[in-house]
Amino acid sequence: MIEIKTEKQRSAPWKKIKLVVMILVIVLAALYVPAKFFAVKFTNAGTKLYDQGRYEEAMAEFRRALRVYPWFKPARTQLAELEKFVKDHPRRPDVRFVPTPRDVVDKMLEMAKVTKDDILYDLGCGDGRIVVTAAKRYGCKAVGYDIDPRRVEESLENVKKNKVGDLVRIEQRDIFTLDLSEASVVTLYLLPRLNVRLIPQLEKLKPGSRIVSHDFDMKGVEPDEVVALTPKRGKFEHKVYLWTTPLKKIKEEASAENLETDETSSTSPTE
Ligand SMILES: C[S@@+](CC[C@H](N)C(=O)[O-])C[C@H]1O[C@@H](n2cnc3c(N)ncnc32)[C@H](O)[C@@H]1O
What we know:
The chain has nine helices and seven strands. It is an alpha/beta fold.
């Protein structure tokens, strides 16, 4: 039997296909427009950071752009260029490695009132002595960050030797690119101006977090406590500063005056 289709019946499948194609086009356009918008936004932010020399943060923005829109050429090109640049020019540490004496490490952890519920970050962890001691003595989680691959290796060995790998993590990172909001205790042995540079990041810590710094203050922020001690095996007096969050900022004029003072002492790390 021959089935005779009317004109209307013959064009019905085509209509369906047209409709599906139209829906597809609309869906793709609806996805494309916001994806492109955010890709441009993240890429512009990355370019700005790139120009400011904040390479790690810039790369993070380019990667974000590529996550929302993987074909976005400007982000792809700049990311590839920056990755090559960073590989060819590894960033030097802002301060050289000088270990904190054992007694001073103990005092820092004691002043920070570390408990097993804390998450401690050591910014510029050197050989990992602070994170290892915190995990061993208090059973807390701890993360050590250092920009120098040799220090990262030493810290990893230290963690292994002391069997605290379940509590301690070591990462090769530039401390000025870190999000510190997870930490409840931050330990520092850097330089006064580096402590000051960290203020915007430290301000993101949860209220009640503690920051302890070996030897160096943080101009513009009032410490809660300053303790001086001379290690049993040492000749020089060391200081430990404690701040709790929210940070108590000192008025502009007073802190600007203080910035004139000397930065380093003879037993201290230098650039
Ligand atoms: C004075 S040592 C302190 C080591 C350890 N915290 C201690 O108290 O024994 C400073 C450390 O910071 C590291 N450092 C310097 N600049 C850094 C940066 N931008 N990011 C990460 N680590 C950095 C250095 O490699 C060095 O190991």
